[in-house]
Write a structure and sequence with these properties.
211 residues; AhpD-like; 60% helix
Length: 211
């Protein structure tokens, strides 16, 4: 579901069809957020390029932790669920439980804890960040370049999450396979879309869903 009309996969042509095809090759279906970009598929292309650059510079673990912290602060069900799924590939159960429920002792290193706090501040009100906030990151061994990467990753997530949330994109029904306690904790404002996921007819059955 979205608040605006979007192009259905079976009606997509040209650049929109190509964008949907790339999404389906990644996810195994055409995600709801991609439909929002059917009006400007070139923006999705630029976003994907920026995303790849941010992830390459920050490294997978840092990128995902910062992104998840930003997504939760933005109250984006879609981004929180998606990036929890990615984090589940390389975090321990204790780390995941703490991220989602705040359960148990904090298992994260001080530097990781502070960079997640900083990411939260970036998306909740970057103009209120002070030199002191940056100095805390310096004190935990983060360089100016690393701090830039953290700020850029959080700010980038604010762009994407705010765009898809503003237009009413709901997280895909594929996320219903996550544990119920995780879904309940991470479904903030918008519910999960219970409708079956959509696919390009000629690519039915293709792709490997991201788990």
């Amino acid at each position: 579901m979205t608040f605006i009309r979007t192009t259905q996969p079976d009606q997509a042509t040209d650049a929109t069809h190509a964008m949907y095809e790339r999404q389906q090759q990644s996810w195994g279906y055409v995600p709801n957020y991609a439909r929002v970009f059917s009006h400007r598929p070139e923006v999705m292309t630029k976003w994907a390029s920026l995303l790849a650059c941010l992830k390459r510079n920050a490294g997978a673990r840092r990128f995902e932790l910062v992104t998840f912290a930003a997504a939760r602060a933005l109250e984006s069900s879609y981004c929180s669920l998606a990036h929890f799924r990615t984090l589940a590939k390389f975090l321990t159960e204790a780390e995941l439980d703490y991220l989602v429920h705040g359960a148990g002792a904090d298992p994260f290193a001080p530097a990781e804890r502070e960079m997640m706090r900083f990411a939260t501040k970036v998306v909740r009100g970057a103009a209120r960040i002070s030199a002191g906030d940056v100095q805390v990151l310096h004190a935990h061994g983060l360089s100016d370049t690393e701090i830039f990467d953290i700020a850029a990753t959080a700010a980038g997530r604010a762009f994407f999450a705010n765009l898809i949330e503003a237009l009413g994109a709901e997280a895909d029904s594929a996320f219903l396979d996550l544990p119920e306690d995780v879904r309940q904790a991470l479904t903030a404002r918008r519910p999960i879309d219970f409708r079956a996921v959509a696919r390009l007819p000629e690519l039915e059955g293709s792709g490997t869903p991201q788990r």
